[in-house]
Specification:
The chain is of the alpha/beta class and 369 residues long. The protein is built from 11 helices and 13 strands. Helix 2 packs parallel to helix 9.
């Protein structure tokens, strides 16, 4: 009897260990997505990345789950590390991590778990403490300046002369900086072709957490009331504040990352990048045994890969003066390398924004700090 009790006790202890590792769910989740700051359903960056993982997993009968770090917009590296470790404890073989803010946590967790693969969206190759490139990380970045260029060009061609742009990351997000640069230079190209004067107000003031806020909405309300016709919202859930202000003032909005036409009739187009498609390609490489083609390296995607652009589906294209045919011609020029976008040297004081003015002839940029 004592022997039987000992066996049962040992089994119970073993079960408790397994339960702790799997959160007693009874299910393991092979593909995991650890979101960036903000919410999963942000209508943009997090959502687009997750949908790519979800689509691949469901098409191939693979279990999947998303993990949102604690503390939302105030998430720390410790919160991100915990979320990644939770995913691994629940059986993750590959973790998709969108957002440059994941870098420190990703470096630590990937170093400690060399058998787990990581897809770093909007990131670059990472090295361990000894300087060795981590081969279990596949880094994917985008030419956001191309998508921004399309958006700025389209806005001016459509007939808008007073533009705005609000951007996330408080000048510290390389992707948002590239979006802003392209937006300005695209507007300049169109304005020069039309021989018209254009004003653009740029702000990173309320974008540090990539979230909606009453302060951002008040700022956008002031812009629209002062004549701004269309605002490029670049920063995840920030778009909710911009849309609210636009709807109150009969203004227009340009979305970002994914096709955001479904968020409101005021959204005339979106500067998109191939988040879902690139995640699916990376997962396909892993499951086809071709991880070595992307692991430990950086893959930069742009128009040449059909990974940046404007959505042209019916219902998404809400411009009338600038046509889909005209856009397709512009896209073809970008894809062929006929349009060259020279990026400035970025700094976190925003000097590069004012610095662009020396390269402009038809566009005047003001930076609201």
């Amino acid at each position: 009897m004592k022997k039987l009790f000992g066996i049962l006790l040992a089994v119970a202890m073993m079960f408790s260990v397994v339960c702790a590792l799997t959160a007693c769910t009874g299910t393991t989740y092979e593909i995991a997505v650890v979101t960036d700051v903000g919410q999963l359903n942000d209508g943009g960056f997090n959502q687009g990345t997750y949908e790519g993982a979800k689509e691949y997993a469901e098409a191939n009968g693979i279990s999947y789950k998303y993990y949102q770090p604690a503390n939302g917009g105030d998430a720390t590296d410790a919160d991100r590390i915990q979320a990644m470790n939770d995913a691994i404890a629940n059986g993750a073989k590959v973790i998709v991590t969108p957002g440059y803010m994941q870098e420190n946590a990703l470096r630590e967790v990937a170093t400690q778990n060399p058998d787990v693969k990581f897809i770093f969206i909007d990131g670059f190759p990472l090295a361990d403490a000894e300087g060795n490139i981590l081969s279990n990380i596949a880094a994917i970045s985008y030419n956001e300046h191309e998508a921004g260029y399309f958006a700025g060009y389209a806005a001016v061609k459509e007939g808008y002369r007073k533009l705005g742009g609000t951007f996330g990351g408080a000048l510290g997000n390389p992707a948002c900086n590239r979006f802003a640069t392209g937006y300005i230079l695209g507007a300049e190209a169109a304005a020069a072709e039309l021989n018209v004067e254009v004003e653009i107000a740029i702000s990173f003031k309320y974008g540090s957490k990539f979230s909606s806020s009453s302060e951002l909405q008040a700022q956008m309300d002031g812009w629209y009331k002062n004549g701004t016709e269309v605002v490029f919202s670049c920063g995840g859930a920030m778009v909710n504040s911009v849309i609210a202000a636009a709807q109150a003032n009969n203004g227009k909005v340009i979305g970002v990352d994914t096709d955001q036409a479904g968020l409101g009739s005021c959204v005339i187009t979106s500067a998109v990048k191939g988040l879902a498609s690139s995640v699916k390609v990376a997962l396909e490489k892993l499951y086809q045994g071709k991880w070595s083609e992307i692991g430990g390296t950086g893959t930069s995607l742009g128009a040449k890969d059909d990974a940046t652009g404007l959505p042209t589906a019916e219902g998404s294209w809400r411009m009338t003066n600038f046509t889909v045919e005209q856009y397709n011609a512009l896209f073809a020029s970008m894809k062929a390398g006929e349009i060259q976008i020279v990026l400035p040297e970025y700094d976190t004081d925003g000097n590069w924004v004012e610095g662009l003015n020396s390269r402009l002839t038809k566009v005047t940029v003001t930076h609201e700090k």
